[in-house]
Backbone:
């Protein structure tokens, strides 16, 4: 096995330190007994208890989770259909326009996306709130979901679908019983990506939200503008822990399936 050189090891150490030391500092200061985040006042879990009694922050977190779940489901479903249209139907009339409309949010600045959706909702006289943010996030995540599923469909063995059709299955039955189970990992990955993008978004939600629909990133940003508190560090630490737990669980599940398959 080829060993890493000192220069490469140093670059790796510096890169990982640049990425993860701020996160470790945030986690450490979430247990700070002092109200000042830059002054260590001893170990304490006081701010976690204070976080659990912060009802506006808890409401914003629950709203963000519900919004991310609904918008990710819409984005994954529509993205799968768009990927099927782009891969299976060849060069149909209007393909370039359709592809550009689906993938435009990927390269368009979020400020422009948010502002254009805001103008649309105002012109349509739609009351801004949960559903307007959901539509905005689904529109934003649609392109990402389409790319993930499209990559899976590009290497899909269509002979399995043809065999199902030869046995008398309708196109819809073939999709539900053959195609969807085989591309399900890609659909799940697209859903998780859209869920993460929605949960993390601040700019688009700021443009399309209304009274009573404040997401967690918006709540945290508003609080940080008045000064960082250990309570905010505690909230971010819980989010980091939830993400780490999900990643570890998914890795263990994948490893278990690989062992069982071998």
Residues:
């Amino acid at each position: 096995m080829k060993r890493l050189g000192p220069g490469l090891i140093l670059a790796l150490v510096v890169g990982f330190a640049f990425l993860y030391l701020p996160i470790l500092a945030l986690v450490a200061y979430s247990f700070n007994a002092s109200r000042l985040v830059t002054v260590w006042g001893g170990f304490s879990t006081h701010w976690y208890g204070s976080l659990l009694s912060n009802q506006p922050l808890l409401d914003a977190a629950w709203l963000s989770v519900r919004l991310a779940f609904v918008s990710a489901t819409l984005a994954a479903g529509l993205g799968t259909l768009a990927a099927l249209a782009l891969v299976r139907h060849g060069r149909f009339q209007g393909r370039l326009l359709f592809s550009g409309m689906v993938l435009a949010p990927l390269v368009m600045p979020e400020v422009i996306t948010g502002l254009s959706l805001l103008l649309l909702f105002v012109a349509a006289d739609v009351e801004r709130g949960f559903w307007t943010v959901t539509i905005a996030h689904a529109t934003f995540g649609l392109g990402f979901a389409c790319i993930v599923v499209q990559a899976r469909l590009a290497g899909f063995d269509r002979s399995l679908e043809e065999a199902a059709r030869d046995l008398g299955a309708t196109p819809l039955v073939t999709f539900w019983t053959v195609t969807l189970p085989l591309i399900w990992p890609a659909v799940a990955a697209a859903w998780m990506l859209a869920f993460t993008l929605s949960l993390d978004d601040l700019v688009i939600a700021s443009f399309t939200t209304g009274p009573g629909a404040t997401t967690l990133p918006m709540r945290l940003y508003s609080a940080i503008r008045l000064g960082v508190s250990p309570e905010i560090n505690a909230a971010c630490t819980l989010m980091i822990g939830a993400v780490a737990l999900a990643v570890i669980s998914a890795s263990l599940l994948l490893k278990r399936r690989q062992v069982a398959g071998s």
User: Anything to note?
Assistant: The chain has a mean pLDDT of 84. The chain has two domains: 17-53+231-262, 58-227. Residues 58-227 form a domain with the MetI-like fold fold (CATH 1.10.3720.10).
